[in-house]
Amino acid sequence: MTTNADMTIYNQHLNAETKEVEYIPTVVSGVHWHSNLKVSVGENGLKGVSGISAAEVYKIRIPESAETEEKKYIEPRAYRHLPADESGQYWTIQKGDMFCKGATDMTLAELKKSADFGTVLGIGDNRRGMNPHFRIGGA
Asked: What is the 3-state secondary structure (H, E, C) of 9-55?
């Protein structure tokens, strides 16, 4: 697989003590990053007024061999049950996680202003076969 970027994924984790959702960043080096601007024209239902909407759509492939700051990948279900003090030792991919292009330590507020920022909408676990990888679909 050809890789063309690094990325940072922000895993959501519920801190059982504080009852707050925390976002734990992990830099993933060596991914295939593809983005495409999708535009739609149509009626929005307000008295026949038509409009244009646009959004970036992301397709990211993460090879199983990608570097991840010495963090180990675990399945989303196992990640959700980790104690808060262990969540920074692992990473996962789950719907609702956030991501951005490049290695960064931005806060969530800064991340949401980033040009190459998205939310995980779908995950494909393609670790079987000749080219094992995860596929993230997001917008």
From this structure: EEEEEECCCCCCEEEEEEEEEEEEEEEEEEEEEEECCCCCCEEEEEE
